[in-house]
Amino acid sequence: MVREAEIKKELSNFINTKNNYTDIRIVEELRLNGGDVRADMVDLNEMHCYEIKSEGDSLSRLLRQGTQYGKTFDKVTIVTARCHLEKIIEIVPSWWGIIVIENKEENFLKIFRTAKFNKKFISPEDLATLFSKEEALSVLEYFDTSKGWKSKSLYKIQSHIANLLSLEELKYSVKESLIKRLDLECVV
Predict the structure, then answer these.
(1) For residues 47 and 19, which has the higher predicted lDDT (pLDDT)?
(2) Which of 35, 50, 52, 163 qualifies as a FRET site for 27, CA 20 to 30 Å off?
């Protein structure tokens, strides 16, 4: 049985090779909706979520996870062991990509279906939950609307931002905030 750490390493290489990145931005275990759900890996360059289901994983949480991913990311791909493939095809929406884990050294990850762009489901309220309080206040400052918000709860600030910004402005702000967070975490 292939371990998740191995899968993540191969997936990171796969993403980098597929997109020919000069500056790869991948975050692992990104908390969504206040930590209710975690995305296994997210390619911040594309806001593309990758959920891993290895042989030993259950699919019981996939519907709940998938709903949240659909409200948050531009693309979603499930990376699955072959034993789950038939059930996965039934469960996930047609716009999700599917990558199959092969138990071979060469072509370890095989694209079964390419992810399509999420055109309908992104929720500004759910997307805004990716901001920390500091990041949210920084966004308000950037748009010169921070007055009176510093003492408010994170939830209220996130909700305010979701209503204040266009979806494109919000997506851009979230992406930039996550990249800055990742860069800060990587500083030794």
Answers:
(1) 47
(2) 163
Can you give the residue range of the structural domain that contains 138? Answer: 124-186
| Residue 18 CA: distances (Å) to CA of 15, 52, 55, 111 | 5, 18, 24, 11
139-172: pLDDT as tens digits? 999 999 999 999 999 999 999 999 999 999 999 9
**Are residues 164 and 90 part of one domain?**
no
In whole angstroms, how far apart are CA 73 and each of 77, 124, 171? 10, 11, 9
Among the three residues 63, 90, 113, which one is the final residue of a domain in this structure? 113
| Residue 186 pLDDT level (bands cut at 50, 70, 90) | low
Supply the pLDDT for residue 188. Answer: 41
Strand order in the sheet with 75-81: 26-32, 37-43, 48-53, 75-81, 97-101, 109-113
The tally of domains found in the chain comes to 2
Q: Is residue 118 a part of any domain in this protein? A: no
Strands 37-43 and 48-53: antiparallel
Query: What is the residue whose two structure tokens read 């995305």?
Result: 39
**pTM of the predicted protein model:** 0.91
Domain's final residue, options 55, 88, 113: 113
Residues β-bridged to residue 175: none
Q: Indicate whether 175 and 104 sit together in one domain.
A: no
Q: Is residue 119 part of a domain?
A: no
Q: Is residue 69 part of a domain?
A: yes
